[in-house]
Specification:
single chain, alpha/beta, Alkaline Phosphatase, subunit A, Alpha-Beta Plaits, 8-stranded mixed β-sheet, 6-stranded mixed β-sheet, 13 helices, globular
Length: 390
């Protein structure tokens, strides 16, 4: 076995400019990074030193002369722009068909079966903002005991319930029922538990959200690494996104800062393999709410924590930073955006300043990681290993 650790950090929704097919997704003109770098709150000197602004296509920011990392831009070729499909592609799966979405709500016969299995009625059944849906339907939910079921532009079936009236464990059971029901034609990417608390007029969501994903349909780099005896550690939503498949252990997080603190704590532990991290605040709290300054500030805070992370890296450690799609907070609407993502690779064994250009897909990350650990590549993607490893 190769005595090495790879830390793969996904900055959820940190897109860097529209893909050639962005117009097909209604996203022509979107550019998450351009929007947030225009904010006075944005300052990421370490990622700049690594070569973030040297990446092809980033012409609105000034790069550095001698980047300390290798860098690329990667385009998604799967038919989708959601978290599940983005992470699956990072892990080596190209999704030929998009996961189903429900802009007009879910079919009534599906909801009737869900109600029969849970013994509870359903409210809403429309695409909705998570904060607005509890504001509008929360009181009726409390009075009737009906579950608030809603979706978004993503392939999701979301169930909101007040913790005082539907205990969280009960809500989780309802989500498990929905997950079993939503397969095949209606196989949404995620069923999401959305518990909330508070009084009428002042409801707030709690951090006890839980995602129930589809099991990945093909082999991922996680499967290959685990089978070869390597650790496959998840931080944040990773366990949920892959339905727990081939994740050797997982750590739940409260927010981006907590996620980085827990990742830094993992650095003190001895293991060989991959630590796969998702930092969701960029997307969930800032991108979807069109909060440009909040997104920019979160990037600035991440960069400060990244300094601590880098200071603790072992000589054989490799850091990779990327994203799973865009969610431009300065763009029209609140949906994900079809964008390129950054790929930064750093470590003492990584060459400085190698511009890898534009990769073939997000799956190049999976191919590179499998190559680094000297396991057979069983996924899509093309490895960068020979170009970046000293």
């Amino acid at each position: 076995m190769v005595d090495r650790r790879v830390f793969l950090i996904v900055l959820d929704s940190y897109g860097i400019g529209e893909l050639p097919d962005a117009a097909d997704f209604g996203d022509k003109g979107s550019n998450t990074l351009r929007s947030i770098t225009a904010s006075k709150e944005y300052n990421t000197p370490l990622m700049k030193k690594m070569g973030l602004f040297n990446i092809d296509g980033i012409e609105y920011m000034e790069g550095v002369e001698n980047p300390i990392a290798s860098y690329a831009r990667l385009g998604e070729i799967s038919k989708g722009k959601d978290t599940t499909i983005g992470h699956w592609e990072i892990a080596g799966i190209i999704s030929e068909r998009p996961l189903p979405t429900y802009p007009d709500g879910f079919p009534q016969e599906l909801l009737d079966e869900f109600s029969r299995l849970t013994g509870r009625g359903v409210l809403c059944n429309k695409p909705y903002s998570g904060t607005e849906v509890i504001k509008e339907f929360g009181e009726e939910h409390i009075k009737t005991g009906k579950l608030i079921v809603y979706t978004s532009a993503d392939s999701v079936f979301q169930i909101a319930a007040h913790e005082d009236y539907v205990p969280v464990e009960e809500l989780y059971k309802y989500c498990e029922i929905a997950r079993e029901l939503l397969q095949g034609e209606h196989g949404v990417g995620r069923v999401i538990a959305r518990p909330f608390v508070g009084e009428v007029g002042n409801f707030t969501r709690t951090p006890r959200r839980h995602d129930y994903s589809l099991i990945p349909p093909k082999t991922t780099m996680l499967d290959v690494l685990k089978e070869a005896g390597y650790a496959t550690r998840g931080v944040g939503k990773i366990y949920d996104i892959f339905a727990g498949k081939s994740i050797s252990d997982t750590v739940r997080i409260q927010n981006n800062v907590d996620g980085m603190e827990k990742t830094i704590a993992i650095m003190e532990e001895d293991f060989k393999g991959l630590c796969f991290v998702n930092l969701v605040d960029f997307d969930m709290i800032y991108g979807h709410r069109n909060d440009v300054d909040g997104y920019a500030k979160a990037a600035t805070v991440f960069d400060r924590q990244l300094e601590e992370f880098v200071s603790k890296m072992r000589d054989s450690d490799i850091l990779m930073i990327t994203a799973d799609h865009g969610c431009d907070p300065g763009f029209r609407g609140t949906d994900h955006s079809r964008e390129y993502v950054p790929f930064l690779v750093y470590g003492k064994d990584i060459k400085n300043g190698v511009n890898l250009g534009t990769g073939s897909s997000f799956a190049d990350i999976a191919a590179t990681i499998q190559d680094i650990f000297e396991v057979e590549q069983k996924t899509a993607g093309k490895s960068f290993k020979d170009k970046i490893l000293k």
